[in-house]
Amino acid sequence: MIDYKKEVVGQKIEFGSFDVSKDLVKSYCSSVNEDNPLYLDESVAKQSIYGKLIAPPLIFVSVQFEVELPDPEVDFGNARFLAGQKVESFHPIFVGDTIKAVGSITDVYEKTGRTGTMVFVVNQTEYFNQDNVLVATRQASMVHREVESE
C-alpha cells in the first residue's frame, strides 16, 4: 500500500493565464527553428482556413507559472524522474487569445516491473482559451523508485 496524501488527487489548481502575442509566437518559433507562415506571416494566415495567425500547438510550454500543484508526499523511493508526457491539441490557439492553465494530480499508483516496484504520480494540465474552450491538455507521469547507491 502506497503512503501519500490522497486528498490532493483531483484538486484543480488554476496556475494562471497568458496572452498569446505575436512576440511570444515569434520568440517560440525562433527558439525551435519553426518557420511555418501560419504562425509568422499574417498575409498567408489570412488566406488559410484559420483566417488569421495561429500559434504553434505547444506554445504553452514556453510559459512558466509560479503556482505549483500540491505535493502528494509519496513516501517511497529515493529517486524521482519524468516517466513520460502526452500532449493533445483540440482547438487552434490564435494570436490574441488568452490561455488559462488548470492542473491537477489525476492518479497515484504502484507498479512492479523487472527492476522492482515503482510509484507513478500522474498530473494533467488543461489549457482553455478566453471563451473557456479546451484547446489542449498535457499529461505527465513522474516515477518514484528505489535506486541502489554505488
What does this structure look like?
This protein has one domain: Hotdog Thioesterase (Thiol Ester Dehydrase, Chain A). The chain contains three helices and five strands, in the order βαααββββ. The chain has helices at 22-31, 37-40, 42-46, and strands at 13-19, 79-89, 98-113, 116-128, 134-145. A hairpin with a 2-residue loop joins strand 3 (98-113) and strand 4. The longest helix has 10 residues, at 22-31. The mean pLDDT is 95.
Helix content: 10-25%
Oligomer: single chain
Mean pLDDT: 95
Architecture (CATH level 2) name = Roll
Strand content bin: 35-45%
CATH superfamily: Hotdog Thioesterase
DSSP summary: helix tally: 3
Low-confidence stretches: none
Give, in spatial order, the strands making up the sheet with the most strands: 1-3-4-5-2
CATH class: Alpha Beta
Which key phrases capture this entry?
elongated; Thiol Ester Dehydrase, Chain A; 3 helices; mainly beta
Secondary structure elements and pairings:
Blueprint: E1 13-19, H1 22-31, H2 37-40, H3 42-46, E2 79-89, E3 98-113, E4 116-128, E5 134-145
Antiparallel strand pairs: 1-3, 2-5, 3-4, 4-5
Structure described in brief:
With about 150 residues, the chain is mostly beta strands. The chain has helices at about 20-30, 35-40, 40-45, and strands at about 15-20, 80-90, 100-115, 115-130, 135-145.
